Amino acid sequence: MSIMKNFDKSKIRTHARELRVNMTTSERLLWEVVRGRRIQGCKFLRQHPILYGGNLLRYNYFIADFYCNEKKAIIELDGPIHENNVEYDIFRDSELENLGYNILRLKNEELNDIKSTKARILAFLDSINLG
Questions:
Q1: Residue 9 has what pLDDT?
Q2: Are strands 45-52 and 60-68 parallel, antiparallel or unpaired?
Q3: Contact 49, 12 (CB under 8 A)
Q4: Which of 63, 91, 99, 115 has the smallest number of Cβ neighbours within 10 A?
Q5: Are 124 and 73 within 8 A, CB to CB?
Q6: Which pLDDT value is given to residue 3?
Q7: pLDDT value at position 63?
Q8: How far lies 92's CA from each of 6, 16, 98, 112, in Å?
């Protein structure tokens, strides 16, 4: 039996598409900062699915808020719900880091100072050495 036989990519795509349509105010604000190669010429995708782990029955996946393939960089926005999901966020970050992804977590409140947020994103991207 093929692994892909039990794996429905269309469900993941649909889930990601729904998240893109229903972005939070903070996600919309950050999207205006990173879209269109506005930061260091890096192309970011929003609500991008990333497969990990899995077994013979199915793959597991995360949906990154913002993802840059060139830098293997993920930017996650943490709103109030993340205060109750600390353990899950630690697990998720660990899994993604084990796959070679670089993660920057920003709190929604940090977007109140967009200039500082841009500087933080630039420093994060500068710190990534893929070589």
A1: 81
A2: antiparallel
A3: yes
A4: 115
A5: yes
A6: 46
A7: 94
A8: 23, 17, 10, 26
d(CA 73, CA 80): 23
- The whole-model pTM stands at 0.88
> Per CATH, which fold does 3-127 belong to?
Endonuclease; Chain A (3.40.960)
Roughly what angle, to the nearest 10 degrees, separates helices 25-34 and 114-127? 60
The pLDDT assigned to 45 comes to 98
Strands (DSSP E) contained in 7-124 are: 45-52, 60-68, 73-78, 102-107
Q: What token pair was written down for 16? A: 């990601």
CB atoms within 10 A of CB 70: 14
Q: What share of the chain is helix, strand, coil (3-state, %, to 5)?
A: 50, 25, 25
Question: Residue ranges of the chain with pLDDT lower than 70?
Answer: 1-7, 54-58, 82
Q: In degrees rounded to 5, what are phi and psi of residue 32? A: -65, -25
